[in-house]
Specification:
Blueprint: H1 12-25, H2 29-42, H3 47-59, H4 63-76, H5 81-93, H6 97-110, H7 115-127, H8 131-140, H9 146-155, E1 219-222, E2 225-237, E3 241-252, E4 254-257, E5 260-265, E6 273-284, E7 292-298, E8 302-306, E9 310-314, E10 319-325, E11 331-338, E12 341-347, E13 351-356, E14 362-365, E15 369-382, E16 391-404
Antiparallel strand pairs: 1-2, 2-6, 2-9, 3-6, 4-5, 7-12, 8-11, 8-15, 9-12, 10-11, 13-16, 14-16, 15-16
Helix pairs in contact: 1-2, 1-3, 2-3, 3-4, 4-5, 5-6, 5-7, 6-7, 7-8
Length: 405
């Protein structure tokens, strides 16, 4: 689906969008519906959000509402065949087979080699008694055993196999979306968390949150310097680069939103994140004081990190950019990564990990914050006396906050 390129990557919209995606992945459909309906109200023009909401309505059996969403999307993106397949899938469940056949016929005209479109159209044709036409589309879908296909379809409650379902473009919330009320997103006024990753609730602060390196580690710290082994693709800010070896190619990285690249650079002109691809190695001098390099391993789920603290990362290609917005036009750029990944963070002093329990708010100075994960809803505030007059993040929910001393 075409990306909504020119959207500002901030606002409560992002939080609810990713929270909804995460809830959908977790099978929590009612919560996914609530978040995605809020996100749609905030950004009714966002096609990716509508697509997900249409999928949630479909899974909830609200076929009329799902059909309405997909018809609207098709009006906006008439050349997008996946939307027509999604709409046809809902129409099949709603027993509106003639309309489903029409949408699928248009889909295969738009993309003649689309196997799912041909396979789903064969389902509709079989159910309406058009067996010869159904066989033609099975051939185009690469299905050799027609009889077995028909037998399997007949055993499906509504005549549609599970793997012939709808396409949803999840991003992040993707493997796990995170818990930013505005997720790599923004902060929402009332807390609503996302299972960012199945993070076990610790009973006390971890004494040493900096992970030990393994033989498979991509990054290594040597004294105050940083080494990086490039195996395929690595993202890093190249200031401080001392030497590089091997067959490597470099290109500037663009921020991402909704699984698509945007027009915005990832980083400022003097510290842009660069994609390094190939097989080789990089070595960096010590960063400017007071910062040092810190290697942080994310094993699974989703994590949110302060974008300016990200020096390098590798291992996951599922990531997004966004920002938290607070009062008095304050904001904080955020980086969200899903799945197993290794990151190099820039921070002064030692890293510390603080568990946040449900029902207890946690306030942390934005200058010390590195990231967070779990079912947390952040709120960015510009504190007033007697607190120091600077930015703080207030977390509610349950999860863990990473900061530096």
């Amino acid at each position: 689906m075409p990306a909504d390129q020119d959207e500002e990557l901030d606002g409560d919209f992002l939080h609810h969008f990713y929270q909804g995606g995460e809830m959908l992945r977790a099978g929590q459909l009612s919560q996914a519906r609530e978040h995605l309906e809020v996100a749609t109200d905030l950004r009714p023009e966002n096609s990716k959000c509508q697509n997900l909401l249409g999928l949630v309505y479909y899974k909830l059996g609200l076929f009329g509402q799902s059909i309405e969403i997909y018809r609207d999307l098709i009006t906006r993106f008439p050349e997008e065949e996946t939307l027509r397949i999604n709409l046809a899938t809902v129409l099949i469940r709603a027993e509106r087979l003639d309309e489903a056949e029409e949408e699928l016929s248009l889909a295969v005209k738009l993309k003649p080699n689309h196997e799912k479109a041909h396979r789903t159209l064969a389902v509709v044709l079989m159910r309406t008694g058009q067996l010869e036409k159904a066989r033609q589309h099975l051939n185009l879908a690469g299905v050799e055993d027609h009889e077995q296909f028909f037998k399997e379809i007949m055993t499906q409650e509504q005549g549609l196999a599970e793997d012939d379902g709808m396409d949803a473009e999840l991003t992040s919330p993707p493997p796990a979306a995170a818990a930013v009320k505005p997720r790599a997103e923004q902060i929402a006024p009332k807390p609503a968390a996302v299972p960012v990753a199945a993070v076990e609730k610790p009973t006390e602060p971890a004494p040493d949150p900096e992970p030990k390196l393994t033989a498979r580690a991509i990054f290594r710290i040597e004294g105050e310097e940083l080494g990086a082994q490039v195996q395929g693709r690595l993202f890093a800010r190249l200031e401080g680069l001392v030497w590089a070896e091997g067959e490597l190619q470099y290109s500037p990285a663009k921020k991402r939103f909704g699984g698509e690249e945007t027009q915005y650079d990832f980083g400022d002109a003097e510290s842009v994140v660069t994609v390094t691809e190939g097989d080789g190695g990089l070595f960096f001098a010590a960063p400017l004081a007071p910062n040092g390099y810190h290697i942080h391993s994310q094993k699974e789920g989703s994590g949110f990190y302060v974008e300016d603290r990200i020096f390098a990362f590798a291992g996951s290609d599922s990531w997004e950019n966004g920002r938290l917005q607070g009062n008095e036009d304050a904001d904080l750029p955020i980086f969200h990564v899903s799945g197993a990944a290794q990151l190099v963070l820039l921070a002064a002093g030692k890293l510390a990990l603080r568990p946040v329990d449900a029902g207890k708010k946690f306030l942390v100075d934005a200058q010390h914050l590195l990231g967070w994960w779990g079912e947390l809803a952040p709120r960015l505030i510009l504190a007033e006396p007697p607190l120091p007059h600077r930015l703080f993040l207030e977390f509610s929910g349950q999860g863990s906050v990473l900061y530096h001393m």
